[in-house]
Amino acid sequence: AGSGAGADMRTEISTAAAFVTRLLRAAGGVGEEQLRCFRECLQEAMREHYRHHWFPLVPSKGSGYRCIRINHKMDPLIGKAAEMIGLSHERLFQLLPSELTLWVDPFEVSYRIGEDGSICVLYESPQPGGKAAKQLESRTSCKEEWRIGRSSPSKSYNMMTVSS
Predict the structure, then answer these.
(1) Can you tell me whether residue 119 is helix, strand or coil?
(2) Within a domain: residue 160?
(3) 58 secondary structure, DSSP code
(4) Can you give the residue ranges of the Anti-proliferative protein domain (predicted)?
(5) Residue 135 in contact with residue 42, Cβ under 8 Å?
(6) Which of 37, 101, 132, 162 has the fewest Cβ atoms surrounding its Cβ within 10 A?
(7) Going along the chain, which residue ranges are E strands?
């Protein structure tokens, strides 16, 4: 059973690694060859880290363990990949958002920038058995949210509004 898990999480891991790599590319100052190497190192680090913490039958199990987080501290997986291409943690903090949460779960990769930002889905695939179909319809992706306009946040985000 152990060997199958690795193949199953390939899409989720490559989606997450590509996203962090895009953030670095957008910030500028990191060469394409370095970015390619960073992405490969990050994917490898994630594969290793998630190996025994990937439960397609219970996608939310282990979610906290797989969560990649930058919040005044650099996520060790991102830090490790950056070290491989000679980027210091200080430099990473300049290049990446200071508040970033990336959830890498079976069938879904999503992220949030800022403590009270919207959660945006990067990758989503229906779970075998179709139980998730209902909840997927009700969720608005970030793209749709921008199209609708910020004036009408969808219901599913109300729980994240922070009252001052």
Answers:
(1) coil
(2) no
(3) S
(4) 96-115
(5) no
(6) 162
(7) 68-71, 99-105, 108-113, 120-124
**Alpha carbon 156 to chain centroid, angstroms:** 19
Domain that holds residue 109: 9-124
Low-confidence ranges of the chain (pLDDT < 70): 1-7, 129-164
Can you give the pTM of this predicted structure?
A: 0.76
Identify the pLDDT of residue 130. 53
Cα diameter, the chain: 48
CATH of the domain at 86: 3.90.640.90
DSSP 128-142: TTSTTHHHHHHPPPH
Output the pLDDT for position 96.
96
C-beta of residue 116 within 8 angstroms of C-beta of residue 160: yes
Please give the structure tokens belonging to residue 131. Answer: 């139980």
